[in-house]
Design a protein that fits this description.
The chain has 186 residues and is α+β, with helices and mostly antiparallel strands. It is built from two helices and 13 strands, in the order αββββββββαβββββ. It has helices spanning 4-31, 101-104, and strands at 35-36, 40-43, 51-53, 61-65, 68-71, 77-86, 91-95, 98-100, 110-112, 132-134, 143-151, 159-168, 171-183. A hairpin with a 2-residue loop joins β12 (159-168) and β13.
């Protein structure tokens, strides 16, 4: 049987080993956060101006297209997700659907859910969750993301900052591109 002194030394060594492992794990997690990327360029109307509506109503659900993406690098990019950086109070993001232009008959810039004059995007296939693969010096092809926003209160600011998360090889990147969506209320 081990003496109390040996057991205490063993316990201390075990505790130091556990703490060292935990600290190493934290450092690994911190260093695995995505680096700032520069491989993508934004294209299309959302990259150069403001999309939106002049008289948005509380309770309505809008979808706005993210910019199309062009890979300006020498390596393949896999876009894994997108999001908006700045969502003002009164707006609630309900998702980031991914559509194919083949399914939607083109690049839909905005859409009001339930509007009889608009294409019913709720019936379009949503490919969110699957990465968009963009080869070197190519564009995103037929695929484009949209942001689905429900108006839940008075909105006083625009939604801004399209964030794109992607991988190149084994490296993770995040990149912000211009976009701005106005849900102006009178």
């Amino acid at each position: 049987m081990a003496s109390p002194a040996r057991f205490t030394r063993f316990s201390r060594l075990l505790l130091v080993g556990v703490i060292t492992t935990m600290l190493g794990s934290c450092a690994t997690q911190a260093s695995s956060s995505p680096a700032t990327g520069h491989a993508l360029a934004a294209a299309g109307p959302p990259s150069a101006g403001i999309l939106g509506v002049p008289n948005a109503k509380i309770g309505s659900v809008w979808r706005f297209a993210f910019p199309l993406f062009v890979n300006n690098s020498k390596a393949t990019v896999r876009i894994t997700s997108v999001r908006l950086d700045n969502v003002p109070s009164g707006a609630r993001v309900e998702g980031y659907p991914l559509y194919s232009m083949k399914d939607t008959n083109g690049y839909i810039l905005d859409n009001l859910e339930g509007d009889k004059g608009s294409r019913d995007m709720t019936k379009m296939p949503d490919y969110a969750g699957k990465p968009i693969v963009i080869r070197s010096h190519r564009d995103s092809g037929d695929y484009y993301f949209m942001v689905k926003v429900k108006i839940v209160g008075r909105i006083k600011k625009h939604l801004t900052g399209c964030r794109v998360n992607y991988t190149q090889g084994n490296s993770k990147y995040t990149q912000k591109v211009h976009c701005e969506y106005a849900l102006d209320m009178k």
